[in-house]
Specification:
With 86 residues, the protein is an all-alpha fold. It contains three helices and no strands.
């Protein structure tokens, strides 16, 4: 069990680094899309922390929280990787 959790944490770290890099590229543009992304990022962090706390308070496992975070990160990476339409 600890091996799987360790692997999942390492994978989540790599996914998070990718999303951070993609977001930084978007934020450095400083345009309206960058501002929208910044607001989305802050709101998403708040929502995710509340959801994680609720899951744990209800007896959920760290593995459940981590799976949810990874789902969110994969969705962000996919969204941020899409070519921008002009």
């Amino acid at each position: 069990m600890w091996w799987k959790l360790s692997y999942d944490l390492a994978a989540a770290n790599l996914e998070a680094q990718r999303v951070i890099a993609l977001r930084m590229m978007k934020l450095t543009k400083g345009d309206a899309a960058a501002q929208k992304e910044a607001h989305k990022m802050v709101n998403e962090k708040l929502q995710a922390s509340v959801e994680a706390a609720a899951t744990l308070a209800a007896g959920g496992s760290l593995d459940t929280v981590l799976r949810r975070y990874r789902t969110i990160m994969r969705a962000n990476a996919k969204r941020l990787s899409k070519p921008r339409r002009r």
